[in-house]
Amino acid sequence: MAKTIQAIRGMNDCAPTESPLWQWIEAQVRQVLASYSYSEVRMPLVENTALFTRAIGEVTDVVSKEMYTFWDNEEQLTLRPEGTAGCVRAAIEHGWIYNNEQRLWYMGPMFRHERPQKGRYRQFHQAGVEVFGIANPEIDAELIILTARLWKMLGIEKHVSLQLNSIGSLEARANYRTALVAFLQNHQGLMSEEEKERLVKNPLRILDTKNPELQKVLDDAPKLLDYLDDESREHFAQLCSLLDAIGIQYEINSKLVRGLDYYNKTVFEWVTTALGAQGTVCGGGRYDGLVEQLGGHASPGIGFAMGLERLVLLVQEVNQNIPVERAVDIYLVYQGEGTTLAAFQLAEKVRSALPHLRVMLHASSGSFKKQFKRADKSGAALALVLGESEVQNNQVVVKHLHGGVDQQVVDATQVIDYIQAQF
Ligand code: HAM
Question: What is the signed CA dihedral for 65, 66, 70, 74, rounded to 10 degrees?
Answer without folding.
Answer: -60
